[in-house]
Amino acid sequence: xxxxxxxxxxxxxxxxxxxxxxxxxxxxxxxxxxxxxxxxxxxxxxxxxxxxxxxxxxxxxxxxxxxxxxxxxxxxxxxxxxxxxxxxxxxxxxxxxxxxxxxxxxxxxxxxxxxxxxxxxxxxxxxxxxxxxxxxxxxxxxxxxxxxxxxxxxxxxxxxxxxxxxxxxxxxxxxxxxxxxxxxx
Length: 185
Fold this sequence. Notes:
Layout: H1 5-11, E1 25-28, E2 40-43, H2 47-50, H3 63-66, H4 72-84, H5 89-96, H6 102-109, E3 132-134, E4 138-139, E5 146-147, E6 152-153, E7 157-158, E8 165-170, E9 173-178, E10 182-184
Antiparallel strand pairs: 1-2, 3-6, 3-10, 4-5, 7-8, 8-9
């Protein structure tokens, strides 16, 4: 994305990470978009490809300066890069040298979040509406029946706050079933 005049003025035409080379690209820090200038960082043609280069650790020693930038987008991108090298002493020292706003740290770390996935007993991902088969007989609490091994449960619903549970109907009763006792069919 091209650098806007407003961004060019903010960064004084220099890369906001290294502060050495001329800024040439406006980089939106995910998951936010480039709709607001606070979400964008002006980068040079050296820093941009280094973002995805795992061998660029020495390049990022310059971030000791950019971590202090008042712009939240620059802080978030800087922290995100440093976090990738957190096991190296220099990166850890830079990260601990500043106390960033919690929202900026959460924004930075959002790139490392792994979405929780409901999985059956074989490790297959489950989705709302799937059909599963019970892999063992289950005593259904609060009822007078047992769900037999091999029982088919159609149109399951994932329990949103617990990846180990799904909901399904057996004998016209909605019950909670542990994912380790089902197999996707």
